[in-house]
Amino acid sequence: MPAKRTYHVITLGCAKNTVDSDSMAELLSRGGFSPARTSARADVIIVNTCGFIDAARAESVDTLRKLAGAKRGGQLLIAAGCLTQRSGADLAREIPGLDAILGTRRWMDILAVVEQLRPGSGSPTVIHLPAAASVGTDERDVLRAAVRGASAYLKIADGCRRPCAFCAIPMIKGPLVSRPKIRILEEARMLQEAGVRELVLLAQDTTAYARDLGERDGLPGLLEGIASAAPRIDWIRILYAFPGAVSDRLIDAMGSLPQVVPYLDIPLQHAHPDVLRRMNRPADVDWVRRTVEQMRARLPGLAVRTAFIVGFPGESELEFEALPAFLSEMRFDRVGCFLYSREEGTASAALPDDVPPALKQERRNRLMELQQGISLEANRAWIGKRMDVLVEGHQKGLTVGRSFRDAPEVDGVVLIEGDAPLGAMVPVRITGALPYDLTGVLEEEKTAGRKLRPSKSRSVSN
Predict the structure, then answer these.
(1) CA 431, CA 450: separation in Å to the nearest integer?
(2) Non-local CB neighbours of 163 within 8 Å, separated by 6+ positions
(3) Is 437 among the domain residues?
(4) Does 433 fall in a domain?
(5) Can you give the pTM of this predicted structure?
């Protein structure tokens, strides 16, 4: 019997790309391929690229060139993801040895593309970039989640309906396409049975879920459905809410459903109304103040994460100063800050990129230095308190985990004295605070009100 052909997937970029990579891997496994631990051992290498900003594009191109240069006879190299959707024809010309280009909107065709590229067939580079954004309606019943330890990223929609001037995502991903609610609930149940303890809901804009299906405020109902369908999931976390779209009903759902953690990721991008207008973003900064105040009153312990862009075209010193003033006022728990990057095809690409790179970096440094102190102050408020912590690893004699305040990969961790099993939800008494992390000690099991439950095997299938 001939050996199975093998594949290896390299994922660059965000967690949404990670979900797409795992979905492609599942389809290849169903098609008779087996995973290889390294690219050198694989018959088919897939690089799921990121094309969001200059640094990400450079990393994607560099990775593809290195793999193309190291290809052995019979190996196939496929570029997938955001950069391919945006610059597929250029990649095919610039990277000799690239066998196929697969865009973001038809990742579910990976097996068909691979089958066109059987070694020795002499096929030219296959460029598979259909314009139709059918993600969500033609998924071949593949799991749209990426399981990492006891957590899983669960994609609820793809594409975007927002006209942000700086963002190329609508060009890359296409318009909003929400996944059927019934399918999302099925997957939540499957993930629960696999031992997953945390679901992280993903979309370009989670608060837009189901608008393309005729539902104005669909996220609260989806949260209620997931909580009912998968009652043993400990945490449900929402990422990427849109300013102005956090409804009273969503706040009520977060407050009434114990599984939904009091955590909100709401990228604001700026705090000066004039800059926000140039960005084609909601410019009602008072809405942010009112909504965060309402959520903090309704959701004790609420952790708010946001992100800002500095150096947007025309950003004056006066406009920039609105950002540190806003941070000092709002006291966000987590903040990311990015330098403006001119993206071809976006509305802001027509504007002069007139803030010097050194000034952009200086402004970012000023903002993040301020935020570091705010984050440390917020962390110190937890000293002496008890938190449930999801265990993710062990390092230098410590147990490493995350609290409800920490989204995977982007936020801090809790460093715990004592040993606890991977995937367990453990009670921890916080003893110290760092700018981004907490330290603590394990408490007796009885103080948690429930037994420690290590997670099951991470194997998930349909």
Answers:
(1) 22
(2) 170, 280, 347
(3) yes
(4) yes
(5) 0.90
